[in-house]
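tool_call: predict_structure(chain=1)
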Amino acid sequence: MSINTLNDIKKGKVFSIDGAPWLVVEANFVRMQQRKPVMQTKLRNLINNKVLEVNYNPGDSIEEADLSHQAAGFLYTADGQAHFMNNTTYEEVAFDLDVVGDAAQYLHEGLAVDVLYFNDQPVSLAVPRKVELRVTQTVDGARGDTAQGKVTKPATLETGMEITVPLFIKEDDVVRINTETGEYVERVS
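tool_result:
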């Protein structure tokens, strides 16, 4: 499918450029005085992780990548790779941790993810927008901490990720985390 309008270029879309899939990491619409509007983008190649900055003008045609999604579950991490099992074919798929990127801090056993395939080859993965992780370490909130405006405290999660949580969160609580911002959302249990 070909895209002809600048409004269709959004963060998260994947385009095919020179036969390779490119993910839109940033997209900013810029209109300068007495000039044509431009969509400034930062693209990341899903195969080799190269970053490219491209400006698109009105009338430029971009081909949307033909990607397929398949559900998979996270198994384990070993030798610098994260291993997943395809839920329909039961085949194991492995990605280098640098391809997984920031999503690696949310991976725990059994986490359901979407593996993206381009030309029947796995190229990337997408973690859910929110994940649930167990708090393994945190300090107890002392009475009166809110008087100084200190309403959060640091906590370490089961994956080793460190976040700030409200004072009422204790060790072994399960919390929901937004994977786009890396912030606490709510307590699950």
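agent: Residues 97-100 form the longest helix (4 residues). Proceeding to next step.
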